[in-house]
Write a structure and sequence with these properties.
Length: about 270
């Protein structure tokens, strides 16, 4: 009986401690976030492209505000100018006449809120995904499904890859970056595992060719956002900046990246 009384007292003590704690999160002026990913999927013309602009928001905000009213152009080495026009007030800017070229150099210019942002990048080629291997005994418990997406790396070339794995269950897409420093000219694979995968699930696997600079940018970004990267209120070990610069006010630097990639998409059904 005495033990039961102690348990009841402890229960009411826990219930009474459910006070609301207000966390004072540091705030700053919103920054422009540039999602300028130009993707030329194999087998397509690559003429339809879009760029998304948003503003940074406090950590606990549920909505990400769009950056509306910007003027966006991309120019190539042949002085072609591609104007990106906004759809309504969505912060999504589209162009239907883009001309992609492997190893072509492109310049991005964004005018927003009386400031000009600039970036330059090269469109990189990519190897196709050749086949998929599935193993059903992966993970610590030995019952997770693991996927290996194989591709052939070109010989005597420096190549960098961004892999995206997206499935039809409610999970955040998985991103991984790879280089060919130790696998030049060989058949290699990208690795994916998700504990909730089961037979019949669809996985969209995309391979993007990227520049060395983007590889380094994404590597640091993924490292800082991994499980060992600390909580949301901890100071990040380094500021991860992309290739976009503010030509008007260097102190008001943007977030995000201007990337151009040839890409290959592979649809796999889990067995």
């Amino acid at each position: 009986m005495k033990k039961l009384v102690h348990i009841i007292i402890l229960f009411f003590f826990i219930i009474s401690c459910e006070d609301v704690i207000n966390v004072d999160v540091p705030s700053s002026e919103p920054k422009l976030v540039i999602d300028a990913s130009i993707n030329w999927f194999k087998g397509t013309a690559g003429n339809q492209q879009d760029i998304k602009l948003t503003l940074s928001a406090p950590y606990f905000d549920n909505e990400i505000p769009p950056a509306t009213g910007a003027e966006i152009t991309i120019t190539d080495a042949y002085n072609n100018t591609f104007q990106f026009n906004e759809e309504g007030s969505s912060g999504v800017y589209k162009n239907n006449a883009f001309i992609p070229e492997i190893n072509g150099v492109y310049n991005l210019i964004i005018s927003y809120n009386n400031e000009t942002y600039f970036a330059t990048e090269t469109l990189k080629s990519v190897s196709s995904i050749e086949f998929i291997e599935q193993e059903n005994d992966g993970g610590f418990s030995g019952d997770e499904i693991e996927i290996k997406a194989y591709y052939n790396d070109p010989l005597n070339e420096e190549n960098y890859y961004l892999f995206e794995f997206q499935n039809d269950i409610p999970t955040i897409p998985t991103l991984e970056v790879y280089d060919d420093e130790f696998s030049d000219g060989n058949q290699i694979f990208a690795f994916y595992s998700e504990e909730d995968l089961s037979a019949g699930n669809e996985i969209i696997i995309r391979n993007y060719g990227v520049s060395e600079r983007f590889y380094e940018f994404m590597f640091m970004l993924l490292l800082q956002n991994s499980q060992d990267g600390g909580g949301p209120f901890e100071t990040q070990p380094a500021a991860v900046r992309g290739n976009c610069i503010n030509q008007t006010n260097s102190n008001n630097y943007p977030l995000g990246y201007f990337r151009l990639s040839e890409a290959h998409e592979f649809l796999y059904i889990v067995e």
